[in-house]
Amino acid sequence: MFDKLIDFIISIGKEFLPYVIVEQWNEAIMLRCGKLQQKVLKPGIHFKIPFLDSVWEATIITQSLEMNPQSITTRNGRNVVVKAIIRFRIEDVKTYLTTISQPHDVLIDTTQGMIREIIEGMTFSEIYGMDSLLTKKVGAFVRRWGIKVERVTLTDLASINSLRIIQNKNMEQQHASFALPEMMN
């Protein structure tokens, strides 16, 4: 309870300050009475009007996001599981902060969707070495959000036998039994 009170006092205290400090690895934008100011705030100290100006910061240095494994079927009907990472940085902080909400989620969802689209159009043997193609396509797509993709890398790639079970929500767990060895043949 005291932790939340202290956090509240600190946040209110920051509103009283007539300045904001942008850290070396960040850039920021300022809104005055809710309207975007044109100037991008670079690292350093910047003056603001307490309670009228709000500052949104974003980390602009290289970051990396790990994606969950995804199961995809190739053009020749082979089931594969792929896992990837994306390394990126922010090139245009104003566009980045004002055009998308939850940017990390949007970047992961976009990248995974493009991975699926590309792999579904390939055979299994064509998948190897597609990192540069992914980097180019994802990079071109997310540039509109102020993001520069440095590299998309498939970290895991495996051919697997896939078994998908669709279960009705009303069915009880005990009724959802199946014979796994028979289905794998």
How would the global form be characterised?
Answer: elongated
Estimated structural class = alpha+beta
Helical residue percent? Answer: 25-40%
Estimated radius of gyration:
23 Å
Helix-strand pattern, N to C? HEEEEEEEEHHHHEH
Question: Could you give the count of β-strands?
Answer: 9
CATH superfamily of the largest domain: Band 7 domain
Poorly predicted runs: 173-185
Overall average pLDDT:
86
The portion of residues forming beta strands comes to: 25-35%
Termini separation (Å)?
A: 58 Å
The major sheet is characterized as: 4 strands, antiparallel
Per CATH, the architecture of the largest domain is 2-Layer Sandwich
Write down the CATH class of the largest domain: Alpha Beta
CATH topology of the largest domain: Tetrahydropterin Synthase, Chain A
What is the count of distinct domains?
A: 2
In DSSP terms (H or I, runs of 4 or more residues), the helix count works out at 6
Structure characterization notes:
- With 185 residues, this protein is of the alpha+beta class.
- The protein folds into 2 domains: 2-59, no CATH class; 63-159, Tetrahydropterin Synthase, Chain A.
- The chain has helices spanning 2-16, 93-99, 103-120, 124-127, 131-142, 180-184; strands at 19-22, 26-32, 35-41, 44-47, 53-59, 63-66, 70-73, 79-90, 147-159.
- Strands 6, 7, 8 and 9 form a 4-stranded antiparallel β-sheet that branches.
- α3 (103-120) packs across α5.
- The chain starts with a helix and ends with a helix.
